[in-house]
Amino acid sequence: MDKKEQIIEVATKLFAKKGFENTSISEVCETAGVSKGLIFHHFKSKNGLLREIFSRTTNDIKKNNLTHKAENPYQILSLLLNSFFEQLKKDSTFLQLNVSVISQPTTREIVKDLIDERAALIFESTKKIFNEIDPINSTIRSYMFIAELDGIALNYLSIFNDFPIEEIKSELIKKYIQQ
Amino acid sequence: MDKKEQIIEVATKLFAKKGFENTSISEVCETAGVSKGLIFHHFKSKNGLLREIFSRTTNDIKKNNLTHKAENPYQILSLLLNSFFEQLKKDSTFLQLNVSVISQPTTREIVKDLIDERAALIFESTKKIFNEIDPINSTIRSYMFIAELDGIALNYLSIFNDFPIEEIKSELIKKYIQQ
Amino acid sequence: MDKKEQIIEVATKLFAKKGFENTSISEVCETAGVSKGLIFHHFKSKNGLLREIFSRTTNDIKKNNLTHKAENPYQILSLLLNSFFEQLKKDSTFLQLNVSVISQPTTREIVKDLIDERAALIFESTKKIFNEIDPINSTIRSYMFIAELDGIALNYLSIFNDFPIEEIKSELIKKYIQQ
Amino acid sequence: MDKKEQIIEVATKLFAKKGFENTSISEVCETAGVSKGLIFHHFKSKNGLLREIFSRTTNDIKKNNLTHKAENPYQILSLLLNSFFEQLKKDSTFLQLNVSVISQPTTREIVKDLIDERAALIFESTKKIFNEIDPINSTIRSYMFIAELDGIALNYLSIFNDFPIEEIKSELIKKYIQQ
DNA sequence: TATGAATGAGAATTCATTCAT
DNA sequence: GATGAATGAATTCTCATTCAT
């Protein structure tokens, strides 16, 4: 069993549940059943561990992007929306980790470059879709599409206890796919 | 000048710039030129200080809401969008504080009830507007409107360095006000 | 009883006996009967504590210098040599602390400016003496006199177990005072 | 190139530049391009590495002593002083390592026996010289000669930034060789 | 209302050393 | 001879909080 992977797995869960700043290395160690020193051996620092986790998520996004080479932009949008809402329900704490890391000044600074990389990646792949639907306004529509999804995530995860996620999903599908 | 107000002012700025968890009481004291004891005298705890700051923002929103008793829902939307984008540009760090407090599990817990209160407030005043525009779908449209703005704030403040805020604003005005 | 003074007293003894790098803050605290936090409250860091101790010694030297306003340079030299050998025998560990702080790269860096200040102080007061004895060569004779005493201290404290300190003292008195 | 030699070379430089206590085995490994395990394989412990370095210097001194079998004690003194001042200028950090190891309680303890051995060696070879110059006072003159040189080294290396090393050298030559 | 000395629990990090390979 | 994952004890330092004044 790979201890490095185990640390990453445990840390991801704890960071997601309690926030990065409020999860101590000690807690990660105890939960993962490894010594404190090992974390610093593998990741150099707590920040290094966060970076590793953050960049792995980006890599997952990359892989996902490569997967759907559907012919139809509407098909891609459909897949994308479905997987987005799926993750929102299943992986909620994990998504929350990403939002909180990005929005908190200190953690933001730690993964600054990785945020830029990921943002560019998401923007490009979104724009590729809208280029086929509405080439003239594809830039602005991409930004708005991304913002809309992020806003939905933020409100669902952190603001409203009774956010009508299913209806919102229907609405979005209506708006973007069925004209 | 009132020392209590001074503490709140300084703490707001520091929490916004460095995050709540990464700002120590000591730093607030030194910057505000008061003693440590005084903060605990006035706010009972560091969490108490955060709650005071957070609820003051809610009060500001309340006051703002009372102000615009325009006849026309489109006029209200227009005012609302304008002040939103205005604040986004002028008060960016302050808005970021609100997002980060809300999205981080630990701080979220501290102001849980205040978030609920504020969310209800914002939802109600938004719904009042959409009730006049599209009564049947007013609930879903309110949620989507709020999510859209939050998403724009998040992307502008924390994700894209070159987010086309002016074009997004035009687009929203086009979408919500000029049909 | 002043806890700050107590910390300084205990730390001086421990640093002298075990060396700065090998004395932990915990040990200082336990011995002094204060909490860990208090050291950082008063001295900001372990390095700050060392600086405080080092500069106090310089202050002692300053005070000592002001004292002997003997008319005769040979009288001053005599007093000086006597107190030097006296300290060498009584305060040996304390002198060793000074030598080790000065000669170790890391600790040296910490008190760099204080070493410079002290060196200038000692050189000036030595030169004042030799100016009256041999004005033309006073500079070089001052440097040699200081080096000689330091070398004796180093050899007595750290190198030879059977360094003939009394005979060395007689020899120096013969050399510098009785022509 | 022999990895063991490489380790010694790198460690000597690092210990000299940063002090023994402030140089970690990890740093030695990285700089030398070897694994951690290898150091413990060759030297048993970090202390063992220091002892190896320290005793090699003693060996160098031994070899040097064997070399000059001049007939004239003044010739030997001359050679000795020249090589001393030469080393002071060229090998300053290395000499500083020796002084700092000797004067710091912890490191002193580690090489205690080696210091004694080296001190005896230096004393004996110095006394052999003074035996020919002034047999009656040779002991005390040897101690003073050694102390004088050590004091000069200490002051030049660690105390005065503008120590007049050249003039001091001339003075010593005048004092010990030209009457 | 206001101060700041004092606390103590807990944080991240370092580091010599071991050992299976 | 050579590697590097793994350990665990120790280290410096931070920080919210209390309390006598």
TrEMBL record, chains A, B, C, D:
The keyword DNA-binding applies. InterPro entries: DNA-bd_HTH_TetR-type_CS (IPR023772), Homeodomain-like_sf (IPR009057), HTH-type_Tx_Regulator (IPR050624), HTH_TetR (IPR001647). This is TetR/AcrR family transcriptional regulator. SUPFAM superfamilies: Homeodomain-like. The keyword DNA-binding applies. It holds the Pfam family TetR_N. Residues 1-61 form the HTH tetR-type domain. Keywords: DNA-binding. Residues 24-43 bind DNA.
